[in-house]
Amino acid sequence: KEIYLPETICEIGEKAFYGIEKVFYNGKASGNPWSAYNVVCEYFIEDDFAYSDSTKSCIVGYLGADSVVVIPNTVTAIGESAFEKCSRLISIEIPNTVSTIREKAFYDCENLKSIKLSSKISSIGYGAFLGCVELSNIELPETIKTIGGEGFCGCKSLRKIQLPSKISKLDYATFNSCTKLEIIELPQTIK
Predict the structure, then answer these.
(1) How many other C-beta atoms lie within 10 A of the C-beta of residue 144?
(2) pLDDT tens digit string along 145-165?
(3) Virtual CA dihedral for 38, 43, 45, 48, nearest 10 degrees?
């Protein structure tokens, strides 16, 4: 319920400590993580990541300053809004332990250009990559069955996408406002 942050942290994302009752910090970080919601919730923080609990299976926030991020292999899910508005993020590698990317996980990561997805991902949540305007290429593994509405909406640099053969439905506005998208390869399973 209490977190003590080192003074060396220079930027903290919005809602990074959602639900934490007390955050102790004497530094000068930019950002607005202090809008505390009085939700009973605890996070486990290790290195640059906030996890839902000590199993470190679900990332719920990123506290680091690196532009290239490799997700630890203990992780099985990228939580809702975990990297939301992380403007310094340019590249991310998601290990094969991850099966789910939840709602708005990378929402408005405006400088995100490169993603290496897990070959085990089965679902991408609503708005997971919404507003990632620099994302130009992403390879979707064959394991993906669902992509939530607005999943890649506003990815203005995305040029080509090949949908996995196991996907059967594209939700509302999945590729809306992808203004440079020239090629979409649809499988026969789409209804």
Answers:
(1) 19
(2) 999 999 999 999 999 998 998
(3) -70
